[in-house]
Design goal:
Number of helices: 12
CATH class of the largest domain: Alpha Beta
Radius of gyration: 22 Å
Shape: globular
Strand order of the largest sheet: 3-2-4-1-5-6-7
Distance between the termini: 35 Å
Structural class: alpha/beta
CATH topology of the largest domain: Rossmann fold
Helix content: 40-55%
CATH superfamily of the largest domain: P-loop containing nucleotide triphosphate hydrolases
Number of domains: 2
CATH architecture of the largest domain: 3-Layer(aba) Sandwich
Number of strands: 7
Largest sheet: 7 strands, parallel
Bound molecules: guanosine-5'-diphosphate, magnesium ion
């Protein structure tokens, strides 16, 4: 698994072959995205969720994605320490992955890594991001079920609304419920959720309070994750989400392919010839670009 995910990170030419071999064996893993501001407790909650899922006998994969850095390390190091409870459990596979600097970015590379974990037989794959802002929403697009983590504190609910993550949360977790203000955060969240437009009208996102460091409330999160998976299957929403995900992946791969075919175009004799034709007034830049695209 580690070597296959390295092929994804390196964008190895053998990925085509790997993808063709793996794809028929995918589709049974439940992909669960975990998003929220830095420090809210994503890694702690992920580790606690792994414990809860292992107690149910599930095989668990964890993919920590860092869309902001071309290197794995740094911020992820602390997460590795946090995950060491599971280091000797061979029913758990933990991997971090960097994606910036890759053509096609997260939307091209992360689904391929998830495909590896899926085909390897993980029942549940937890995807945690260390990124912030838009990448949080992008991560949610990779998942069947998205957990949005908040913590008590000034304006956290409002921050979430700004980042657009209220629309994409299937389950809301107010972590650090041992701190003051958890109940008022829940009230605030409830009222903003009531005003939030959602694609999936049939699912009312639950709010769960947790203390991840002590594992409190985490079993309830695991129960809600299972309930949401059931809802997805029964409502047809699972297929809708997975098709949307595949459309994005195919599009990203196609754009990457086109981009690489155009790489090194400057210095190309055809480009020089077209530029001269435009200069001479024989054609215009749009028509010249069309000519070029047609002959890629
Ligand atoms: N008081 C309290 N601290 C927590 C809780 N969950 C996580 N933390 C602490 O919050 C800090 C950030 O947690 P981490 O899981 O790394 O957050 P991440 O950046 O979202 O992955 C760590 O020091 C954790 O020990 C909680 O439920 N209560
Ligand atoms: Mg973390």
């Amino acid at each position: 698994m580690a070597r296959l995910i390295s092929l994804v990170e390196d964008r190895s030419p053998s990925l085509r072959e790997v993808s063709a071999a793996l794809t028929p064996h995918t589709g049974s893993a439940h992909i669960v995205g975990i998003t929220g501001s830095p420090g809210v407790g994503k890694s702690t909650s992920t580790s606690a969720l792994v414990t809860a899922l292992r107690a149910q006998g599930k095989r668990v994969g964890v993919l920590a994605v860092d869309p902001t850095s071309p290197f794995s390390g740094g911020a992820l190091l602390g997460d590795r320490v946090r995950m060491q409870d599971h280091a000797t459990d061979d029913g758990v596979y933990i991997r971090s992955m960097a994606s910036r600097g890759h053509l096609g970015g997260l939307s091209a590379s992360a689904p391929q890594a998830l495909r590896v974990l899926d085909a390897a037989g993980c029942d549940v794959v937890l995807v945690e991001t260390v990124g912030v802002g838009q990448s949080e929403v992008e991560i949610a697009g990779l998942a069947d079920t998205t957990l949005v983590l908040l913590a008590p504190g000034m304006g956290d609910g409002i921050q979430a609304a700004k980042a657009g993550i209220l629309e994409i949360g299937d389950i809301f977790v107010i972590n650090k419920a041992d701190r003051e203000g958890a109940q008022s955060t829940r009230r605030e969240l409830r009222s903003v959720l009531a005003m939030t437009e959602r694609d999936d009208h049939a699912w009312k996102p639950p709010i769960v309070l947790t203390v991840a460091t002590r594992g409190e409330g985490v079993d309830e999160v695991a129960e809600q994750v299972a309930a949401h998976r059931l809802h997805l299957g029964e409502s047809g929403e699972l297929e809708r989400r997975r098709l949307a995900r595949l459309r994005r992946e195919i599009e990203a791969l196609a754009l990457t392919e086109v981009q690489s075919r155009f790489a090194g175009l400057s210095g190309d004799a055809r480009l020089d010839a077209l530029a001269e034709q435009v200069l001479a007034g024989e054609t215009d830049p749009f028509a010249a670009a069309d000519t070029l695209v047609e002959h890629v």
